[in-house]
């Protein structure tokens, strides 16, 4: 079965063709990062308009890259939510129109299910059940995955998502949008031991996260450094040290909760997915942890950590194989629990 995947939940237009027997056949991605950079964050109306501009050309590009024609496509998967409503409507309208025109079924996919299944785009020996840590710009959650479609939410953030905390702290350090990867790069040059950031909610039982306090701690640290500096500004080393200490606190906190979740579920496989799973330090430390625990860590390929069409095509293909398709009355879901 050849499935077209369409992702338009936020600021990336992601298109892919996934074949359930032959694997990924093509993927095309357009990032709107430059469009939103001047505003320091995603502007929903601009995002929708840019998806409209790019979605059809990218579908044509993916079909060409895969060396197929539209007649070879057996089904269409699109991101139904959660996300920005206008952006979601672009993908869903295009998916459903093409489904109608080509007479093939369509299926709406949960964006986070896409992220969590992304490692399976590679042919890996991941077996159910496993625990997944989903860390993106909009979500931080721990999920027990018993089978495709069978998800138990173990814990989530009570305030900011991990990626959001990265982006907000990056902004405090005057880094351009999107700050997460930039902060990570800066952290490489920093000394994480100079400041002791808290490890939020690790001193009590449970699997909830809270990251907004780390951003506040960073703001206070930066304020104190400015007050103590002759120029009233932070040096590059100051910034790198704050970045390193912040990043270490986030990773430490995530690791403590992952360890707890694995123990609670009595499983030894851990999947890390979502934009923050591209973080090199996080990946290294999770691998080390799983080696120590005698288990194994799985991540998506770096290109499929952040938003993309391949993960939607994959998740949608599994749903279509299971006989699930859309109802005409289905609507996009800007807020949609997993
Ligand atoms: O999954 P994603 O592309 O979009 C959402 O569904 O939110 O995740 C984007 C988030 C952003 O907050 C971005 O700063 C963060 O992932 N991110 C990173 C890194 N790469 C992306 N955060 C930390 N380190 C990175 N290397
Ligand atoms: Zn995402």
TrEMBL record:
Binding residues annotated for substrate, in chain numbering: 134-138, 167, 180, 279
Superkingdom of the organism of origin: Bacteria
Alphabetic keyword roster: Acyltransferase, Cytoplasm, Iron, Metal-binding, Transferase, tRNA processing
PROSITE patterns, alphabetized: GLYCOPROTEASE (PS01016)
Cofactor(s) needed for function: Fe(2+)
Keyword Metal-binding recorded: yes
Cofactor descriptive note: Binds 1 Fe(2+) ion per subunit.
EC number(s) recorded for this UniProt protein: 2.3.1.234
Family annotation (InterPro entries): ATPase_NBD (IPR043129), Gcp-like_dom (IPR000905), KAE1/TsaD (IPR017861), Peptidase_M22_CS (IPR017860), TsaD (IPR022450)
Subcellular location: Cytoplasm
Biological processes, Gene Ontology terms: tRNA threonylcarbamoyladenosine modification
One Pfam assignment: TsaD
PANTHER family tied to this protein: TRNA N6-ADENOSINE THREONYLCARBAMOYLTRANSFERASE, TRNA N6-ADENOSINE THREONYLCARBAMOYLTRANSFERASE, MITOCHONDRIAL
Record-stated family: Belongs to the KAE1 / TsaD family.
Name of the protein this chain belongs to: tRNA N6-adenosine threonylcarbamoyltransferase
Species the sequence originates in: Planctobacterium marinum
Gene behind the chain: ygjD
């Amino acid at each position: 079965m050849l499935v077209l995947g369409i992702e338009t939940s936020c600021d990336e237009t992601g298109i892919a063709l996934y074949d359930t027997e032959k694997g990924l056949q093509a993927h095309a991605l357009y990032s709107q990062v430059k469009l939103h950079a001047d505003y320091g964050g995603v502007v929903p109306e601009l995002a929708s308009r840019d998806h409209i501009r790019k979605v059809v050309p990218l579908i044509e590009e993916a079909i060409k890259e895969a060396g197929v024609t539209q007649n070879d496509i057996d089904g269409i998967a699109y991101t139904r939510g959660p996300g920005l409503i206008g952006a979601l409507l672009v993908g869903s309208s295009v998916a459903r129109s093409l489904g109608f025109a080509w007479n093939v079924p369509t299926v709406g996919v949960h964006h986070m299910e896409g992220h969590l299944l992304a490692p399976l785009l590679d042919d890996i020996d991941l077996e159910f059940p496993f625990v997944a840590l989903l860390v993106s710009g909009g979500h931080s959650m721990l999920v027990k995955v018993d089978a495709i479609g069978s998800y138990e939410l173990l814990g989530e953030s009570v305030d900011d998502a991990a990626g959001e905390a990265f982006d907000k702290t990056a902004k405090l350090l005057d880094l351009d949008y999107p700050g997460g990867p930039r902060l990570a790069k800066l952290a490489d040059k920093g000394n994480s031991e100079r400041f002791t950031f808290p490890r939020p909610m690790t001193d009590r039982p449970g699997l909830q996260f809270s990251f907004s306090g780390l951003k506040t701690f960073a703001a206070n640290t930066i304020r104190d450094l400015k007050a103590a500096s002759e120029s009233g500004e932070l040096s590059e080393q100051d910034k790198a040290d704050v970045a390193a200490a912040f990043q270490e606190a986030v990773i430490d906190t995530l690791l403590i909760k992952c360890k707890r979740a694995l123990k609670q579920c009595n499983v030894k496989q851990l999947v890390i997915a979502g934009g923050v799973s591209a973080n090199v330090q996080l990946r290294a430390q999770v691998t080390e942890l799983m080696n120590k625990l005698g288990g194994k860590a799985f991540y998506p390929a770096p290109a499929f950590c952040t938003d993309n069409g391949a993960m939607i095509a994959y998740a949608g293909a599994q749903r279509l194989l299971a006989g699930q398709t859309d109802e005409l009355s289905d609507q996009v879901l800007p807020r949609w629990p997993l």
